Amino acid sequence: MLIPVILSGGAGTRLWPLSRELYPKQLLPLTSSRTMLQETALRVVGLPELQAPIVVCNEAHRFTVAEQLRQINMPPQAIVLEPVGRNTAPAIALAALAAGNDALLLVLPADHVIRDAGSFISAVASAMPAAEQGKLVTFGVVPTRPETGYGYIRRGAGQAPVYPIAEFVEKPDAARAQSFIDSGDRYWNSGMFLFSARRYLEELQQHAADIASASRAAFDAAVRDLDFTRIDAKAFGQCRSESIDYAVMERTKDAVVVPLDAGWSDVGSWSSLHEALVQDAQRNVTHGDVLLEDTEGSYIYSDYRLVATVGLRDHVVIETKDAVLVAPKDKVQDVKKLVARIKAEGRGEHLLHREVHRPWGSYDSVDAGDRFQVKRLTVKPGASMSLQLHHHRAEHWIVVSGTARITRDEEIFLLEENQSTYIPVGAKHRIENPGKIVLHMIEVQLGSYLGEDDIVRFEDRYGREGSSK
Q1: pLDDT at position 15
Q2: Which ranges of the chain have pLDDT less than 50?
Q3: DSSP collapsed to 3 states, 407-459
Q4: Alpha-carbon distances of 155 from 152, 180, 188, rounded to whole Å
Q5: pLDDT value for 469
Q6: Are strands 54-58 and 78-82 parallel, antiparallel or unpaired?
Q7: CB 3.0 to 4.6 Å from 301: which of 208, 287, 400, 434, for a disulfide?
Q8: How far is CA 239 from the centre of its chain?
Q9: In Å, how far are 31, 197, 264, 396 from 403, measured between CA atoms?
Q10: What is the structure's pLDDT at 439?
Q11: Do residues 462 and 60 lie in contact, with contact meaning Cβ atoms separated by under 8 Å?
Q12: What is the crossing angle of helices 88-99 and 209-220, to 10°?
């Protein structure tokens, strides 16, 4: 049986301000109407003996991951929650332990673009016999340019489609990258793999025994939490952070490479996303409400309002509700420096968008000032917020559309469109949507402290008691 393992733990800081730490690029619809996670999950449909996927993700992303897979009717057999990031070698070990020894694992990062799904399916199918025979397969992307931002794989002598790996090569300078293209025997290191769970765990034990032991201890102490496998935080925190390349693939004698020519991109920056999308006659890519005048070779993204450019060449302009980025395309790798400064200055724009997603729906902070904040709440049909109270703020609620079932201390009552109520400081309260359409409400908060951590949860159907998330 073949189990896709989707690694969805990255933060995607180079794609700020769209990608945020708590809502990263793999959860965004960057290349189509589907998110990158959804595209990755659907990409494998058509492979033989295909089973439901295993997803390894950050605990903070768990509800969004589950909801996005539900939307495409692809429920996972496991969502494994990493309490801390420890790179790909431990993450894949957790997935291998969850899958069982007999499974073939197709390891896929959740944030890659592959334009030619048919060629991808063919490459994976051609690699399966080698994986079934105990080889550890990686997919080497046939390079289209002398790229200095990727590592390379040099193939050894062999017969297509499976070659032994002669060498892994670190990111080269421009001249060396050009020589790699000219040689014809180098591929970009894609970070996608195919092997049996048993063989991976064996090789990990041989070459990085400490990672194997720590991963197994953390998995053995895991607990089931709703639809999630919650890995033991203390045990996993003691695991060394290491990539699968360094821990296993560069050390094993059984590593092989299968060439992949399928329009691959890792979308690691705004410039690479620009290249991965369809461009107009002026080499521009636009999204949203955009007006261009004398603009060429640029990526212009509007999320909330009109964005207009005049006389722009090879730039990126990204507008969101709470931040705007303007940068030349040849400087977009430095976006991570901006994110580091935002963190250092104690700001919050690296963490969340203005609109924050929760398992019950979302809220959008539309206005705020001294001692007040206004939010727009969206509650999904059948969903319910936790029963909670606040020590420092009162709340006024107005129903814009839909029906709300309100709990306020011992009272339970319905609010219809254009009706409102008041929640005093310290009152236990909850909003539920008993209807079949989305509930839209306006919440006005008043008080001395309006932070999201001023929440005491008593009951929660999503298992978040004691948490402010």
Answers
A1: 96
A2: none
A3: EECCEEEEECCCCEEEECCCCCEEEECCCCCCEEEEEEEEECCCCCCCCEEEE
A4: 10, 11, 11
A5: 56
A6: parallel
A7: 287
A8: 22
A9: 35, 49, 46, 16
A10: 97
A11: no
A12: 50
Distance CA 439, CA 403 (A): 6
DSSP code string of 99-154? H-TT-EEEEEETT-EES-HHHHHHHHHHHHHHHHTT-EEEEEEPPSS--SSS-EEE
Return the structure tokens found at 305.
């309002």
From residue 50, alpha-carbon distances to 65, 104, 183, 241 in Å are 20, 10, 36, 30
> Can 2-265 and 355-459 be said to share one CATH topology?
no
Residue linked to tokens 């064996």: 202
- CATH class for the region spanning 2-265: alpha beta
**CATH classification code of 355-459:** 2.60.120.10
- Residue 345, C-beta contacts closer than 8 angstroms, at least 6 positions apart: none
* pLDDT tens-place string over residues 22-59: 899 999 999 999 999 999 999 999 999 999 999 999 98
Identity of the residue numbered 18:
L
- Token pair of 438, please? 């989305």
What residue has token string 């402290």? Answer: 449
For residues 381 and 314, what is the distance between their CA atoms, to the nearest angstrom?
44
- Cβ pair 141, 193 in contact under 8 A: no
233 neighbors 86 (Cβ within 8 angstroms)? no
Q: 275 and 316 in contact (C-beta within 8 Å)?
A: no
* Residue 253, SS3 per DSSP: coil
- The values of phi and psi at residue 363, to 5°, are -135, 145
Written as one string, the DSSP assignment of 348-395 is: STTT--SEEEETTEEEEEEEEETTEEEEEEEE-TT-BPPEEE-SSEEE
Report the distance separating Cα 375 and Cα 365, nearest Å: 4
197 DSSP 8-state letter: H
Contact 257, 126 (CB under 8 A): no
Residue with tokens 């709300």: 404
Backbone angles phi, psi at 355, to 5 degrees: -90, 120
* pTM (global) more than 0.85: yes
Mapped onto helix, strand or coil, the DSSP state of residue 397 is strand
Q: Where are the domains of the chain?
A: 2-265, 279-340, 355-459
